[in-house]
Amino acid sequence: MKNFHLPLPDDTYEHLKAAAVRSKVPATTLAREAIDFWLRQEFRRARHDAIAAFAAETAGTVLDLDADLEAAAIEHLAGKSRKSK
């Protein structure tokens, strides 16, 4: 574990301390959990953006999703059964 000095605005510091008292959890634990949560969300957003960018760049190319596979996925997600060929 590494230490990290983080100056906070007075209001943020007071809110953090009050939340720590209310939850009976150390302020450092609350801050660590909040930062971890934000980083996980940021990672998910970045991954989503990268996938969306790839999909947009490859739309209509040989790397685009196969039409039959896409239709099967949509039917599956919609809960419909596919007819046998």
Annotation keywords:
85 residues; mainly alpha; 3 helices; 68% helix; 0% strand; elongated
What would the average pLDDT be, to the nearest integer? Answer: 91
State the helix count: 3
Query: Looking at the structure, what is the overall shape?
Result: elongated
In whole angstroms, the N-to-C terminal distance is 58 Å
Radius of gyration: 23 Å
Please outline the major beta sheet.
Answer: none
Helix content: 55-70%
Uncertain runs? none
Number of strands: 0
Domain count: 1
> What letter string, H or E per element, gives the SSE order?
HHH
Quickly give the structural class. Answer: mainly alpha
- Fraction in beta strands: under 5%
Q: What is the topological layout?
A:
Blueprint: H1 10-23, H2 27-58, H3 67-78
Task: Please explain how this structure is put together.
- With 85 residues, the protein is mostly helical.
- The protein has three helices and no strands.
- It has one domain (10-78).
- The chain has helices at residues 10-23, 27-58, 67-78.
Summarize the structure in short:
Helices cover 68% and strands 0% of the residues.
